[in-house]
């Protein structure tokens, strides 16, 4: 799997929806065959996680079927993004990749929004 986290402070105001649309456009530009993927429900109920969202796709690169996700949250002035891509030969592999990517993103958000230690 390929995993990249980004933390960006844009010089302009942005919304979660704008960032999700931009991520989807970027994925579709690189992978015109991108087919939307709906993973089983993965939301973790939490009063501490900021508003967040994801776009998920099945793409083909070099003849290989892949699951790819862009997960985004706005934390204060920062836009936090996870880009995750992993082999997904079948739907079970895609579902496992979706679960792994969601857990990674939720853990990072939890870490970033936790109150500081005394």
% residues in beta strands: 25-35%
- How does the major sheet shape up? 5 strands, antiparallel
Low-confidence segments: none
Strand order of the largest sheet: 1-5-4-3-2
Q: Classify the helix fraction into a percent range.
A: 25-40%
Mean pLDDT: 91
How much is the radius of gyration in Å?
15 Å
- What best-fitting shape do the alpha-carbon axes yield? globular
Structural class: alpha+beta
Order of secondary-structure elements: EHEEEEH
Distance between the termini: 36 Å
Number of strands: 5
Instruction: Count the DSSP helices.
Output: 2
Task: Describe the fold and architecture.
- The protein is of the alpha+beta class and 118 residues long.
- It is 32% helix and 35% strand.
- It is built from two helices and five strands.
- The chain has helices spanning 16-30, 91-113, and strands at 2-8, 35-36, 52-61, 64-75, 78-87.
- It has a five-stranded antiparallel β-sheet, sandwiched between helices.
- The protein is globular and about 50 Å long.
- The N and C termini lie far apart (36 Å).
- The model has no long low-confidence stretch (mean pLDDT 91).
List strands and helices in order, with pairings.
Blueprint: E1 2-8, H1 16-30, E2 35-36, E3 52-61, E4 64-75, E5 78-87, H2 91-113
Antiparallel strand pairs: 1-5, 2-3, 3-4, 4-5
């Amino acid at each position: 799997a390929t995993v990249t986290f980004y933390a960006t402070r844009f010089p302009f105001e942005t919304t979660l929806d704008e960032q999700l649309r931009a991520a989807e456009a970027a994925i579709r530009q690189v992978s015109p065959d991108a087919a939307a993927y709906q993973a089983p429900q993965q939301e973790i109920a939490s009063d501490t996680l900021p508003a967040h969202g994801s776009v998920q796709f099945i793409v083909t690169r070099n003849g290989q079927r892949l699951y790819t996700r862009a997960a985004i949250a706005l934390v204060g002035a920062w836009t936090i993004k996870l880009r995750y891509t992993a082999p997904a030969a079948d739907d079970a592999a895609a579902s496992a990749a979706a679960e792994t990517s969601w857990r990674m993103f939720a853990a990072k958000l939890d870490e970033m929004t936790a109150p500081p230690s005394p």
